[in-house]
Specification:
InterPro entries: BP-dependent_transpt_permease, MetI-like, MetI-like_sf. The protein has 253 residues and is mainly α. The protein is 72% helix and 0% strand.
């Protein structure tokens, strides 16, 4: 059941534009029209099809969030592994400084300097990197002290060999599970950027939410649908992360 739920969510989001019946930018009816057979979720404040805008906005939201999550996890994992191997906690200080800044402030500052999709990916990646580094360091610290790793170090094996053969196979599941959680955070931050007017897409789900707020009493579906869409993405990602975490629990034991 969980697999089917996640698969359907992924299919709808990634192939959404192919299913959209109308343009996400052109009016197709009277503003704030209630749902009909032709327009299942009605229209927004400009008379645009809510369902078509949702279908067009899902793919950029997911791909942007995925790119940001992967970049953040990669940066955090590299630093976390370096700290675990070298015992140099000073490597973590820059990330600790970033973690002390509110995520929304990091988002605003970065998008002010780089108001495009690259800036959004960079901002969200930077926000997610500190926690990813801590998770990776904690997992790797349990492995570095094991006998087989110490023997490999005593043999004079280089770092690439140690990481590829002795450490990453044991901490990979934990890092992948954390990546699922970073993706959830990325979805929320990318949607928040749209909510704050910093969207990089005309159909961003965060933008749909903020645009629907003034007329929520006239046409609540225009607000409920994007809110539920973000929630669906978060739940699906959490289910995936939980499944990966269960498979990786025994690897560090």
């Amino acid at each position: 059941m969980k697999r089917a739920f996640a698969a359907v969510a992924a299919l709808i989001v990634l192939l959404g534009p192919e299913f959209a019946a109308n343009s996400p930018t052109k009016p197709v009816g009277v503003p704030y029209s209630w749902p009909t057979w032709v327009l299942p979720f009605g229209t927004d404040h400009l008379g645009r099809d809510v369902l078509s805008r949702m279908l067009h906005g899902g793919r950029p939201l997911v791909l942007t969030s995925l790119a940001a999550a992967l970049a953040g996890v990669l940066l955090g994992a590299v630093i976390g592994l370096a700290v675990a191997l070298t015992k140099r906690q000073a490597l973590m200080w820059p990330l600790d400084a970033i973690a002390a800044v509110p995520p929304i402030l990091v988002l605003l500052l970065t998008l002010t300097a780089m108001p495009d999709r690259v800036g959004l990916v960079l901002a969200v990646a930077v926000v997610g990197a500190p926690l990813a580094a801590r998770v990776t360091q904690a997992a790797a610290a349990q492995v570095v002290g094991r006998a087989h790793v110490e023997i490999a170090i005593a043999r004079g094996e280089n770092w690439a060999w140690l990481l590829g053969r002795e450490i990453l196979p044991l901490v990979g599941g934990t890092v992948l599970a954390d990546a699922g959680m970073r993706f959830v955070t990325s979805v929320h931050l990318v949607a928040a950027a749209g909510f704050l007017g910093l969207s990089v897409s005309d159909s961003d789900w965060g933008l749909l939410i903020v645009e629907a707020l003034p007329g929520a009493s006239l046409q609540p579906w225009a607000l409920l649908v994007p809110v539920l869409g973000v929630a669906l993405l978060a739940v699906s990602s959490n289910l995936f992360a939980d499944r990966v975490a269960r498979h990786s629990r025994g690897m560090l034991g």
